[in-house]
């Protein structure tokens, strides 16, 4: 397995940049000739990861978010990294409906959506150092994860 291409994107943790990240990642993954559904799956998962960094990682402060993408054979890999407050209990944070901000209309489904739309997700985090969400999706199956 070899890396055939990679890219890195860094932007301010502003909500308006979430769409920029989605479009940039979608454009990069086109070299794998994905289906529209595969693109939509990756864009949705990426959106959740970026939004988590903005809302939970930085809690409104404007800092940098880094999105790194790489293509490994027929697999699209994307990492979203922030250097924010981190997650104390990753297992609890990944439970559906768990949210640390129930008063701000957060549903607690971010990680559940990432898991649903990607083939794998790995979260590493340290309190006061930040969080990295690494996701992978095999491209070219022609079917979404829900149809396989």
UniProtKB/TrEMBL annotation:
It holds the Pfam family HATPase_c_2. InterPro entries: Anti-sigma-factor_SerPK (IPR050267), Anti-sigma_F (IPR010194), HATPase_C_sf (IPR036890), HATPase_dom (IPR003594). Belongs to the anti-sigma-factor family. Residues 37-141 form the Histidine kinase/HSP90-like ATPase domain. It is an enzyme of class 2 (transferase). GO terms for biological process: asexual sporulation; negative regulation of sporulation resulting in formation of a cellular spore; sporulation resulting in formation of a cellular spore. Its EC number is 2.7.11.1. The gene is spoIIAB. It comes from Murimonas intestini. HAMAP family: Anti_sigma_F. This is Anti-sigma F factor.
């Amino acid at each position: 397995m070899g890396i055939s291409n990679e890219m890195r994107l860094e932007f301010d943790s502003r909500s308006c940049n979430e769409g920029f990240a989605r479009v940039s990642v979608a454009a990069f993954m086109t070299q794998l000739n994905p289906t529209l559904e595969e693109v939509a799956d990756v864009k949705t998962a990426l959106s959740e990861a970026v939004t988590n960094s903005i809302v939970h990682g930085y809690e409104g402060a404007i800092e940098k978010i880094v999105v790194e993408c790489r293509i490994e054979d027929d697999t699209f890999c994307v990492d979203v990294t922030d250097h924010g407050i981190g997650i104390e209990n990753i297992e609890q944070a990944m439970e559906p409906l768990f949210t640390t901000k129930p008063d701000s209309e957060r549903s607690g489904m971010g990680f559940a959506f990432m898991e649903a739309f990607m083939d794998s997700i790995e979260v590493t985090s340290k309190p006061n150092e930040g969080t990295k969400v690494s996701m992978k999706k095999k491209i070219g199956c022609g079917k979404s994860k829900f149809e396989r």
